[in-house]
User: Fold this.
Amino acid sequence: MFIEKATDMLIRRDNDLTENDITPERYFWSRRSVLTGLGAGGLAAIPGASAWGKIVGAFQKDATASDEKQTPFESATSYNNFYEFGTEKTDPGAVAPKMFAPGPWSVSVGGECAKPGTVALEDLIKPHAQVERIYRLRCVEAWSMVIPWIGVPLAEVLKRFEPTAKAKYVAFVTLNDPKQMPGVRTPILDWPYREGLRMDEAMHPLSLLAVGAYGRDLMPQNGAPIRLVVPWKYGFKSIKSIVSIQFVEKQPLTTWSTMAPREYGFYSNVNPDVDHPRWSQASERRIGEFLRRKTLPFNGYADQVASLYRGMDLKADF
Assistant:
């Protein structure tokens, strides 16, 4: 799957279609629902077992954000944004384990690179050392989590394909499968879901291609079997269930910045000084906590990433 040209896209703009946090936190996770959805044979007897085979291998733990309490597994797998499975926060946890059981997975890599190709997931990930990084995830609706992700640095994977000097951005595309993803049967977004990073953002050491969390393979509702995690940006930048990675010369079209450009910019760095048009970003609600906390610039990763944006107006380039 490759990125479509802008002239080929049918864009429906609707500022009412947002990731607004209107649903109270409820927990719908249960082993029984996974077993029912994925069928007999014990495939999902342990949460995290997957139809595509075990991807998470031996991993080295990192101390990132280790001083913060982690969000419980049950919360992180039952309160999500994943519009392919519904627009309510509880929809992905309730629907995805029952419907989403992909077979062998591959990722198409192409564009401005010397070694394009379609690579099986295990061949994309397993040549690299896996790490566990405890990253904060801050969503644009002003709620957040702390999750122990497992994956490989995005830069290590991208370098294998030898991007050329013309590669200024990296564009990502999510799986678009109406049979397994009921949300894509409706025109709430322009499917498939698209995201992108500037090349230096993609190559930054914090950018992670995650294949697991909490010591196991990713759950379907969390972006199985492979997703992006960019911890200094709002959560919708961390695209899930990736099937295409393309090196491109021009800034790629991304789903939310196309659908609602006043609300969701291309960069989408966590910035407490830039409010969403309909709510403040100055504070956030950590899932599992009662009191709100102050939002940190770049989600607390300013020391590592602020230099990427030196000289930019972060209110204009939001």
In short: The first helix runs from residue 31 to 38. Residues 58-75+102-309 form a domain with the Sulfite Oxidase; Chain A, domain 2 fold (CATH 3.90.420.10). Helices lie at 31-38, 73-76, 91-99, 121-125, 154-159, 199-202, 255-259, 302-305.
